[in-house]
Amino acid sequence: MEWFGFRKKKDVEEVELEQKIVSATLYVFVSHNLNNEHILRGDVIEIGRAGREFSLDFTKKWTRMNGNKIEVGYLQNITSMISGKHLKLKKQDDGRYSVADVGSKYGTFINGKPLIPGEDIILEDENKINIGHGDSASSVMFQIKYVYS
């Protein structure tokens, strides 16, 4: 499965006028292929690299939910550019999530544009989040998808 296609801004605005966000799912892509998905629960969710105890091979899911943290497994040369505390998602009153880079070493990108550390950006439906690599073919990337009532 590849990235979800972007909806036109007009389509998103029309949906938001008629419906409410009831849930959000964060899809995980590795080398542009769907690897895992996490239904977002809670007001604050951290994303970062796990320690070496969660080491990976290419047959496993690359992320796991551990309380309020989504941990990316350790695989040298691929996940080494992901900080232990890389970014934070915060649920907004309207059900959308915002994202902020919490001072990672290699940065966070939303739809290819770098985030300024500490700045909260509202995630729109189907936004892409790249951490530590920009848009490298071997990187771990995320995409948010909202479910409307």
User: Biggest sheet: strands side by side, in what order?
Assistant: 2-1-12-11-8-9
| Total strand segments | 12
User: How many structural domains does the protein architecture include?
Assistant: 1
Query: At CATH's second level, what is the architecture?
Result: Sandwich
Strand content: 35-45%
Mean pLDDT: 83
Q: Tell me, what is the CATH class?
A: Mainly Beta
- Helix-residue proportion: under 10%
Query: Any idea of the CATH topology?
Result: Tumour Suppressor Smad4
Q: How many helices?
A: 1
**Helix-strand string:** HEEEEEEEEEEEE
The largest β sheet comes out as: 6 strands, antiparallel
| Apparent shape | globular
Structural class: mainly beta
CA gyration radius, whole angstroms? 15 Å
Uncertain ranges: none
Query: What's the N-to-C terminus distance?
Result: 25 Å
Describe the structure.
With about 150 residues, the protein is mostly beta strands. It has one domain (about 10-149): Tumour Suppressor Smad4 (Sandwich). It has one helix at about 10-20; strands at about 20-30, 35-40, 45-50, 65, 70, 85-90, 95-100, 110, 115, 120, 130, 140-149. A six-stranded antiparallel beta sheet has the order 2-1-12-11-8-9, with no helix packed on it. Strands 4-5-3-6-7-10 form a six-stranded mixed beta sheet, with no helix packed on it. The longest helix has 10 residues, at about 10-20. The chain starts with 8 loop residues before the first helix and ends with a strand. The model has no long low-confidence stretch (mean pLDDT about 85).
